[in-house]
Amino acid sequence: MRITSLAMVVPDTLFDNEGMLDLVARRAAAAGMSSAEQEDLRSRIARMFERAGSRERFINAEFRRGSAIDMIKRAGTEAITAAGKRAEDIDLIIYCSVSRGWLEPSTAAAVQAALGATNASCFDVVEACAGWMRAVEVAGSLMASGRYRNALVVGVEDGLQDIIMPVVKGTRVAEENLAGFTVGSAATATFLEPDDTQPVEIEIRSKGTLHDICMLPLSSAAAFLPDDGREVPVAGMFLSYSEPLFSNAIQLMVEATRPWLATLDMTSVALFIPHAASQKAAEVLRKLLHIPEEKWLCPHGEFGNTVAMSMPVALDFAIRTGRVKRGDRICFLVAGAGISFGYGMLTY
Known about the structure:
35% of the residues lie in helices and 19% in strands.
């Protein structure tokens, strides 16, 4: 399988840390927070930015009808054109982001309609921040079966501001909600085609006992959580217990990838791309795996945590800045809520 083309689209508005803190202050005031509460929240978010190594991120600061689907349409159209195809040539569309406007039908169906890809079969893959890599794995397997000639893996992280800082009276932002403020917006589209000369190696594992340390709960969450007396998370408000999430994810990543890396010819890999949830956590992982700094790219500082889009965003950034060229082998180090963890080796 090969990546025939890749496209990324981000909003026009870029917020540095101070700009983001000002935006939060306005939303906090709209939610009825006192001046003292606003200042406390601002200080706690600033500390989160420092811990994560956040600098700036693109976001659509206010809700706008059509913003998410417009970004997907632009990215999808660009990727299809770059692949030398037409929309009606697409066989399969997989949507893989956390952001969505409904639970059913598939968001991929809306993408099909937006692109005019009338011949494409559509479904979604839900795998938190590991969504893109899992969707690529699924697409590769389906194309290898001969069922599909190509696949477009698409996603967008947009419109998340209302689940990070809801504008309702009495909003309380706990420590486990703070990681949401590092999130940025982006859409990507990855056009994939079969190619037996470019082998793919993907292994993603799961540790389900840690499923509740990073969640975006629905109102029905209580029915799916054990009756053990713990507080039910607030519906529709993102939560992440960052310290146990990162420490467990790093440990699991090291255990899963270190034996594999030991068998790898490092000169054969052009670049290593981790999930960009945190610049500083990624640097800890790099050092533990003894990966050379010149072969490492984690653009959290430039884009924030773009959730399931972070790895294709990083790949597009690497292509645009000349760090990756045609024929290069790229290693993706995968981590996401669940916890899902592992690696993927692809050729651009």
